[in-house]
Amino acid sequence: MSNDDDDAAFAEGAITLWSNLLALIGTHLLETGMPRHEVLDMLKMLHETNEETVRSPRARAIAGQHLKSVYDALGKA
Fold it and tell me: Is the pLDDT at 1 greater than 70, yes or no?
């Protein structure tokens, strides 16, 4: 495995952990009474920030997919 493969695997693992944490935080916010649209707006803002700041196109795409999944899950919760 090359260093690039190691770096990519680490980044993908970190993004997966990050999205799981966002799902837990979002669920907690909803359960404590925060309006759903506010939670979803925060996720949209986070996605926009990622699009502007994450340098790797692959990491940006993976993060976007994970955020979309969290957004969809919390939108239906």
Answer: no
